[in-house]
Amino acid sequence: MKAIVTVMLKDGVLDPQGEAVRHALGSLGFAGVEGVRQGKVIELDLAETDEAKARAEAEAMCQRLLANTVIESYRVELA
Amino acid sequence: MKAIVTVMLKDGVLDPQGEAVRHALGSLGFAGVEGVRQGKVIELDLAETDEAKARAEAEAMCQRLLANTVIESYRVELA
Questions:
Q1: Would you list which residues of chain A are within 8 Å, Cβ to Cβ, of chain B?
Q2: Distance CA A57, CA B15 (A)
Q3: Is A62 within 8 Å of A74 (Cβ atoms)?
Q4: Does Ion transport show up as a keyword for this record (chains A, B) (predicted)?
Q5: Banded model confidence at residue B17, pLDDT cuts 50, 70, 90
Q6: Quick check: A38 and B43 CB within 8 A?
Q7: Which residue is closest to B6 within chain A, CA to CA?
Q8: Is the C or the N end of chain B the one with fewer CB within 10 Å?
Q9: For A36, nearest residue in chain B (alpha carbons)
Q10: ipTM of predicted assembly, 2 dp
Q11: Residue A79 class from Cβ within 10 Å (0-12 exposed, 13-18 middle, 19+ buried)?
Q12: pLDDT at res. B66
């Protein structure tokens, strides 16, 4: 089973990477970009086939390794 | 209009970041992780309100800045 984990900085946490992208897009002539936030996406191939267990496992991975829950939020989707 | 761009390494391109995550998950005791690919997600707040134009703009941004199309593929979703 495939789990797709998206990790983003929480609202209110400064995102210098996103700001850099916004400036670069402006320099390239893309007007009308009002905000950019950059995060990461992690695709996990899990041996687990039960949907509930796979979700629980992916969430445990987020808590322990994939996300810094002080400043980041995460979302798990199963596919 | 919000555009969510997901950029992943193409299949067949070595993903050392994903491999590092896979090893770390193994060390933490998560068995059954068969593969990990890591990519980036970029949330764009666009002034454009027309869906087709917003998508075209986001794709142009991917081509010119956000993705290295030699080794990365991208996907644009509008929300």
A1: 6, 8, 18, 21, 24-25, 28, 30-48, 57, 60-61, 64-66
A2: 22
A3: yes
A4: no
A5: very high
A6: yes
A7: A41
A8: C
A9: B44
A10: 0.91
A11: exposed
A12: 98
How does pLDDT run across A57-68, given as a tens digit for each residue?
Answer: 999 999 999 999
Q: How many residues does chain A have?
A: 79
Over chain B, what HEC string results? CEEEEEEEECCCCCCHHHHHHHHHHHHCCCCCEEEEEEEEEEEEEECCCCHHHHHHHHHHHHHHHHCCCCCEEEEEEEC
CATH of the domain at A59: 3.30.1280.10
Query: Domains in chain A: how many in total?
Result: 1
Q: Which domain holds residue A49?
A: 2-78
Closest Cα in chain A, distance from residue B57 (Å): 8
